[in-house]
Amino acid sequence: MDAENARRDLEQARQSYDASVQPRLPRWAPPVCAVLVGAAIALAGAGPATGWLKLVTVAAGILCALTAAWLVLRIRSAQGVTGLRGPAREKWRTVGICCIAIVVSALASSPDTRWIYAGLGVAVGIYTWVALQKQVRA
Predict the structure, then answer these.
(1) Which end of the chain is more exposed for a tag (fewer CB within 10 A), N or C?
(2) pLDDT digits (tens, 9 = 90+) for 70-85
(3) Which residues 6+ apart lie within 8 Å of 73 measured at CB?
(4) Interval 11-48: pLDDT, tens
(5) Could you write out the three-class secondary structure of 9-59?
(6) Residues near 103 by Cβ (< 8 Å), separated by ≥ 6?
(7) Buried b (16+ CB within 10 A) or exposed e, 77-96
(8) Is 128 helix (H, G, I), strand (E, B) or coil?
């Protein structure tokens, strides 16, 4: 194996690894995921002080977040990337821990903090859109 073949093989391995960690996304995925993630946070903190309505809004927020995760995982599996390994697993673990913290704080929130959650929803939605937009197919 000469140096050119080794370089080509190394580049192909790097591209394969990058594709498994950060799959290319269709153009519609970033805005859809951004709206779902932003709505998840805004809904989680939108409920009244106590009661079933608070549980319903938190559950709706969880459902929005799970839908966004499902979309990304479905796109990954359509590209032939199954499972989470390496950096992808670490990223999803970090996101999962953050989601648990948001749910716990949303369950303990008061109606006075609705605007904080609405603002966080907008900010996180914009961040999600920008972060995922980097992975859109060229």
Answers:
(1) C
(2) 998 898 888 877 777 7
(3) none
(4) 887 777 766 667 788 999 999 999 999 999 998 888 77
(5) HHHHHHHHHHHHHCCCECCCHHHHHHHHHHHHHHHHCCCCCCCHHHHHHHH
(6) 44, 58, 61, 62
(7) eeeebeebeeebeeeeeeee
(8) helix
